[in-house]
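Exercise 7b. Backbone tokens:
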């Protein structure tokens, strides 16, 4: 008996030394969070003085009465603190370090890639992001991410671009088809975009591509509907008929259909296709826009998004992350020390690290301030659209699209938080932002059995905050502890300053 007690008392020590995974079967890791205020979408009000028991990776008990805390149970004092579900960011790309040329195999970039691979999951967690959805899901990147010891739960879609369409236009033809093998061949574009040599049409029908993506373990398929931006206007898109076949095949295989679209015409196609989610805000419009609210054409379209219950990710940070390249203080932001590995942060300041900024200078052929202004003006249109949609009663989805371009202005975790701040600046109320970050994403992507609220049976991905996020959006950055599958992590342990120099 004494030996057993001794073992119980020292279990935490044991667990730390030998690893929880090899504790004898039947010995659960248990945590009790005491006297905390619960904020969760399944309750209409904050619930003060609650006690939450976690066993292994699940929440098992919630009570306003004190819970028994046996020996060896980890006890967290929640007095004066707020417990929320962990944040889900439903639009990320974990495959590329922000700012590093896409697909770079330059050996000089190897350190950047490896330091980023180690820090990226920690950076998401640093800002409370415990679930991620990667909308392109390159297999190698998913494996690398999941090989990290501490990481958010990662889900992914498969990307099905039109042959030679966005985003494959940014990849040289010699690498395009191997890098993005699930392209869809569009017979209607065959004169300009014939099937490349060595490929068979039967492997690139909507049905064949959807089938491959379903077999890869993806939950969803993302189809770009993008004719061009910046100077480009002639990228091929899929025909109505082909999009309908994608829709049908996705439904048959149980995959959600996500559309990349951010211009009015493109989003109209997405609505007509009855996609499940539009992965961007509607910002790309050039209409009379000095009045508050949105122009009538935009309003009519957003009403149709609402009517058809299509999920909507404002992704405001896409444009701000471009504008941030042209600010002097971006790389001096103290938050960068927390989320960017030191080697990568140093590289950003080098001449080579400025490549994308220099490319935009060439593309826009305008002074820096003007390039920044163009992007911020577009972002403001997206903010107005998001607010309008919210006012219709539409539940928004939190998605940061990190990184949306090779800009160091987007950073993992930090951008999820900044996206929430932008939503608040758009006039979207804090409780709607709370839902966008938690329950809405869980429900939209079929994950609400496990995530989205604080209830017994759900996975214990939780945040202990020092302030109430229903009173200030900044509370989402006042994180005391992150609970990841029942494991309690002090926030500062996740900082990029804690790993190699
Ligand atoms: Zn994206």
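Sequence design result:
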């Amino acid at each position: 008996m004494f030996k057993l007690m001794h073992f119980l008392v020292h279990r935490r020590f044991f667990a730390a030394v030998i690893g929880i995974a090899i504790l004898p079967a039947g010995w659960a890791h248990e945590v009790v969070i005491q006297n905390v205020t619960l904020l969760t979408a399944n309750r209409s009000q904050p619930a003060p003085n609650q006690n939450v028991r976690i066993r292994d990776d699940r929440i098992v008990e919630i009570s306003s009465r004190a819970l028994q805390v046996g020996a060896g149970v980890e006890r967290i004092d929640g007095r004066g603190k707020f417990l929320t579900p962990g944040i889900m960011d439903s639009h990320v790309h974990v495959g590329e370090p922000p700012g590093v040329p896409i697909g770079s195999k330059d050996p000089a970039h190897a350190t950047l890639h490896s330091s980023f691979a180690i820090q990226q999951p920690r950076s998401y967690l640093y800002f409370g992001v415990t679930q991620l959805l990667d909308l392109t899901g390159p297999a190698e990147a998913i494996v690398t991410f999941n090989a990290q010891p501490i990481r958010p739960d990662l889900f992914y879609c498969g990307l099905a671009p039109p042959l030679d369409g966005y985003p494959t236009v940014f990849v040289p033809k010699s690498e395009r088809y191997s890098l993005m093998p699930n392209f869809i061949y569009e017979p209607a574009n065959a004169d300009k975009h014939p099937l490349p040599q060595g490929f068979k049409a039967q492997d690139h029908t909507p049905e064949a591509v959807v089938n491959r993506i379903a077999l890869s373990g993806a939950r969803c398929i993302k189809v770009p509907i993008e004719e061009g931006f910046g100077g480009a206007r002639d990228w091929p898109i899929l025909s109505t008929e082909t999009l309908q076949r994608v829709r049908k095949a996705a439904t048959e295989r149980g995959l959600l259909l996500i559309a990349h679209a951010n211009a009015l015409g493109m989003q109209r196609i997405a609505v007509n296709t009855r996609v499940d989610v539009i992965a961007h805000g509607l910002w790309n419009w050039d209409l009379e826009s000095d009045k508050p609210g949105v122009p009538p054409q935009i309003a009519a379209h957003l009403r149709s998004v609402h009517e058809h219950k299509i999920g909507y990710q404002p992704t405001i940070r896409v444009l701000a992350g471009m504008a941030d390249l042209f600010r002097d203080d971006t790389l001096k932001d103290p938050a960068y020390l927390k989320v960017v590995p030191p080697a990568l942060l140093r590289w950003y300041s080098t001449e080579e690290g400025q490549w994308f900024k220099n490319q935009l200078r060439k593309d826009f052929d305008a002074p820096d301030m003007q390039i920044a202004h163009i992007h911020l003006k577009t972002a403001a249109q997206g903010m107005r659209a998001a607010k309008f949609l919210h006012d219709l009663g539409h539940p928004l989805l939190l998605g940061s699209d990190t990184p949306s371009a090779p800009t160091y202005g987007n950073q993992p975790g930090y951008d999820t938080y900044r996206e929430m701040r932008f939503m608040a600046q758009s006039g979207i109320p804090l409780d709607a932002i709370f839902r966008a970050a938690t329950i809405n994403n869980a429900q939209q992507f079929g994950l609400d059995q496990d995530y989205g609220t604080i209830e017994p049976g759900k996975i214990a991905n939780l945040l202990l905050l020092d302030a109430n996020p229903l009173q200030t959006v900044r509370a989402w950055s006042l994180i005391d502890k992150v609970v990841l599958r029942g494991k309690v992590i002090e926030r500062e342990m996740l900082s990029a300053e804690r790993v190699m120099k």
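Instructor comment: The CA atoms of residues 174 and 196 lie 10 Å apart. Residues 1-22 have pLDDT under 50 and may be disordered.
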